[in-house]
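Take just one protein record:
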Amino acid sequence: MRAARLSPGGTPRTPRGRADSAAFPGTPRTPARISALRLPSARIAIVILTLIAVATAFGAVLAPQSPLAIDPGALFQGPSPRHLLGTDYLGRDELSRLLAGTRLSVATALEAVGIGLVLGAPLGIGCVFVGRWFDFAANRVADALMTLPYLFFAVAVTAALGNGLVQAMLPVGLLLAPGYFRITRAATLEFGRAQYVEAATLLGASKPYLIRVHVLRKVLPTITVTTATLTGAALLSVSFLTFLGIGVQPPTPTWGGVLSSDLNYLNLAPWAPFIPGALIAVTVGALNALADAFRDRAGAGTLALPELTSPEASAAASTVPGTGGPVTSEEVADAA
């Protein structure tokens, strides 16, 4: 057997980067940093989202047929070599319509998420440093927006601005902003109490400097997880609105529009609605799986103890407050 290496004091030397399992019984050995790509669910999600991104960029080019071409002799055909996913009630190729509708469905969902991100995240970070009166007013506005039903709000705004999917996503993005605001504000409150932020304040650092240097990079993992989650919610909103015929007019193909037209002829083509429904469900599931992987990657539980040479030093380091680690979902819920 190999002899244990001893430190100059005579105690067993702990390998660098690992916690001493004897000094900390029951503590699993965790790698110093877990990459999101190591998770099988994250790898599958990235493959799915990559295919969706390719379809978003080149869907109209990759479509085997014209998504608007009507063939009266090929109504309600099942999957075949000519029509891989079958045809609809007008003989249009289902695969071509789904590929062509990917760009509009995904682009408008990203539009809504971008509006929510721009309106909510900077406000959530800034209100912590501006003052209590501004924080109080911003929270009341967020509470008021969260009480609005997004469907009726989207219908009202679309009626005022015109029936277009871009216009319909403006109210959806506005109603996503309170989610960004609350989560970002909770994460900023967590890191704003850190000792290094207080020290920088005492040394005369300005508030923009504190946000840019000490807070923003700590809050970015939380914003990333929120963006992945809300993108799935926005995609569901787009599909739901186009399913009802809001924001888009036939024959423009969208995922929700294809699902709606297939459901009208369920008795003649019972397999047809499962194809666009499965596409929506798989895409949203991939976004949620990627968000979970990002959260596990950025969570405090994924980081090992620092590289120390003694259990006493490791225990002392673990008790130092305000280390500025990434915020977890539990801390966000507690802070909110």
Q: What stands out?
A: Residues 158 and 167 are 6 Å apart (CA to CA).
